[in-house]
Each structure stands twice: as C-alpha cells, then as structure tokens.
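hiii, so i know i said id send this last week but things got crazy w the move. better late than never?? heres the sequnce for the chain we talked about at the cafe, plus the structure i predicted for it. fair warning i was half asleep when i ran it
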Amino acid sequence: MKKPLKITLISLGTVVALVGVTLATTSIANVVLTNKEVADLEPYGELVEVDGKQMNVAVFGEGEQTIVLTPGAGTASPVADFAPVIAGLEDEYRIIAVEPFGYGLSDQADTPRTTDNIVREVHEAVAAVGAEEYILMGHSITGIYGLRYANTYPDEVTAFVGIDTSVPEQPGMDEVPGIIGAGPALRGLGIMRVVTSLAGSPLEGNPAYSDLDRERLDVLTMRNSMAPTYIDEINHLGENFAGAAGETFPKDLPLLLMYQAKNPDFPTWNAMHEAQAETVDYAVTREIDADHYLHHTKSDEVVAETKAFLAGLPVTD
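okay and structure toks below
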C-alpha cells in the first residue's frame, strides 16, 4: 500500500473512531441526564390507573362547570403547555388537564395509538377523577380525537372548544411519518439534546409562562419527544385522519372553534373550520392573529373567547 493512501486510511479510521466515541458518550450522557432531570422534577397532578399503567391528570379550580383539557400531538407537558389557559379559567371553572400516555409524567403506552384507544384511555382517566359532565377543550389533534370522544360519550360532553384544532379534511397527514425520519435515532444518540440546548426554549421571554413551566417542558421534551409512544401516534396519523372522514360533532353540541387567521400551510384552513361549524345547531368561530399555538401568545384572547362562549350558551332543560 502506498504511504499517502495508508496515512489517509489511518486518518479516516481515526475520525470514524472519534465520531463513534463521541456519539456513544452523548448517548450515555443523554440517558443519564434525562433520568436525573425527570427524577428531580417536582411531581404535579395525580397519577391514575388506566389499563394497568399510570396516567397523569392535574385538577385546578373548583367551579361548578368542568373543562377537560387535552393536548396537541407531541406536547411534552400538557399541564405546562396550557399553563396560561389554566390560570385564566380556573377562577370560574374546574379544569382537568389530562396528559395521555406518552405525554407529561404519564407512562408510555402499550396499546396502538389509534383514535379509539386514545379516546377510551383519556375517558377512563377523566372518570377516575370524578368528572361526569364537562366541556371538552383542546389543541390541534384534539380536533380529531375530540370528534370521536364527543360522539362516543354524548351524555358527558356538553360543549367543545377548539384551539386551532385539526379537521378530518386536513391534507397531507399520511405523509407526516416520513417527515419524522431520523428523529428517533437523533434522540437516542443524544443529538436532539444538543440541538435543543443550542436552539433554546421557544417560550423563553414569554411572560405567560413561569420558569417552572419552562423547566417542565424542557425536561419532559427530552423524555417524551421521539419516544416510542409519540412515534406510534405519528405513524397512526394517516389512519386516524382517514377514520374521521365524514365524521361530524353531534348536531346539538355547542362548538367554539378558534383558529389562526392565516395558516400558511393550509389556505382553506378557515373555510374548513367554518364548514365544520355549520354541521351543528350552535357554533361560534373566531379567527385569532397568531400561529398554530394560539395559547402561547394569545392566551388572554383564548380565555376571553372561551368565557364569553360558555356564558352565552343556550339554556337547555
């Protein structure tokens, strides 16, 4: 072997070895740090048993009416994510913030992340804390799961409040799993931790969130993002959206649909929500000048619209 080529191969081998050692180190460090951070995080909410596993549910306020809050897909800590909405509503309502399996402090799931399984599990958790009648409120993917929930438990759900919620006609949902790509590998190798650390918290400087809220979101992002339950849910998105095709809310269920005024990904976003509102007897739609996470930057408006809607509901016997 010629000397220059031999030196090149040795150098390349050295680089590969160094990369391997570095990735092994970041992988181990990520596991150790994540376990320590989660152990150090002060527990919040109440763990209830669902299918032999533990689901975290946090209850706030003591109002006569109950609101059940469910998150958008992949939310690291629903309780922390909804913090400003909870703070704005708990003076008048009893708030039940559910962290489904794979979210927040809840266990990972054993069951496939189909709409029916998720709805059944969330319902068991809600029943475990004594809720019998309630307003169902949530963000993003709740628009799909909430449809099934309201139709499965019509005697329990008294109204639906959507925060930029998904609609069955939303295009491209069967393509999302391919976008995730190398996410799980990046998580396992600890690279996601490095990138997230460099990028900083997206809620940094947001006065609606406390340091504790941000800590919960940061720590639980490392625990839950790209974890098996999340990946399985993403892999079921196409099936879950297809299963919701043609499904509508019960005709007598009051709806409040709040959504971003301009969705750059879906030009028909507003029209799809208006069409959904037309399927029920009583509905209110509100455009809000914000991105998909309305409750991050416009929580005051979300709270105000919710209170006005619930106060104006028709009186029924």
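btw Residues 3-40 form the longest helix (38 residues). thought thatd interest u
miss u guys!!
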